[in-house]
Amino acid sequence: MNDRQLLRYSRHLLLDELGIEGQQKLLEAHALILGAGGLGSPVAMYLASAGVGRLTIVDDDSVDLTNLQRQIIHTEARVGLPKVDSARQTIAALNPEVIVETIARRVDAQQLTELMGRADIAIDCTDNFATRQALNHACVATRKPLVSGAAISFDGQISVYDSRDPVSPCYACVFPPTQEVEEARCSTMGVFAPIVGMVGTLQAAEALKVLCGIGSPLVGRLLLINALRTEFNEMRLLRDPACPVCGHTAHS
Ligand SMILES: [Zn+2]
Fold first, then answer.
1. d(CA 188, CA 123)
2. Most CB contacts within 10 A, which of 18, 42, 71, 251?
3. d(CA 39, CA 43)
4. Helix axes 109-118, 129-142, angle to 10 degrees
5. Distances (CA, A) of 135 to 19, 54, 150, 204
6. pLDDT tens digits for 197-239?
């Protein structure tokens, strides 16, 4: 770390749990962020400001006026621009040291597995069930941790699935891929602006903890947030030995 980095990250270095060792891990880390919308905005901004060295951001959408109520990485001047390009501009202004790779198209399961082969962690900020399953598959296949988050209306949920941990469930243990899901979308359901910030900020915190190897991440726990009643609840999550995704890789 050079003198400028020692200053920039000094409030992290002062944390006993994190310190210079943890910050060095962040600087060397590579995170994949799937989705540059409401959740991806605070995730990308906090990982960048905290000094995660390399970010790969995947999103095939463009900035729309209806996004700006909650997708705080984008600005009015960038309406019409690909979201990944808008995100890159905000990150460059925030912390030019961060290397940002952008992918402005939809990625399939195989491409996600290739991407995860190079990344240390995935943060799921998408709103699409099939894409969530594909990312989980890629994380199990490459044995990389997955920080999952979702938000709609006034409700949010977040969990960490760590396939390096033999007792951790994967996303498919909890939400089976065969399950019929009704996609609840912001365009029809509405979404309270700060709920995506609350969930995304928690996802960023979990990702930084997992990368540094500190604290107790939300592995085997699902945190449920209701912003209308200001309630936080937690559910225990168990691994499913018959899970079609992680069932056969157990203890191998
Ligand atoms: Zn599983």
1. 25
2. 71
3. 6
4. 40
5. 31, 19, 14, 17
6. 999 999 999 999 999 999 999 999 999 999 999 999 999 999 9
The catalytic residue positions are 186
Q: How far is the CA of 145 from the centre of ligand 1 (A)?
A: 13
What is the Å distance from ligand 1's center to 247 Cα? 6
What are the residues whose beta carbons fall under 8 Å from the beta carbon of 39, sequence distance 6 or more? 125, 149, 150, 151, 196, 199, 200, 203
Alpha carbons 222 and 245: distance in angstroms, whole number? 19
Q: Are 34 and 115 in contact (CB under 8 A)?
A: no
User: Using alpha carbons only, what angle is made at residue 165 by residues 20 and 115, rounded to the nearest 5 degrees?
Assistant: 75
Torsion of CA 71, 73, 79, 82, to 10 degrees: -100
Residue that is written with structure tokens 């095939």 in the block: 60
CA of residue 243 to ligand 1 center, whole Å = 5
Tens digit of each residue's pLDDT (9 = 90 or more) over 158-206: 999 999 999 999 999 999 988 777 776 767 889 999 999 999 999 999 9
Rounded distance from Cα 220 to ligand 1 centre (Å):
11
CATH architecture, domain defined by 3-236: 3-Layer(aba) Sandwich (3.40)
CA-nearest of 59, 91, 57, 55 to 72 is 91
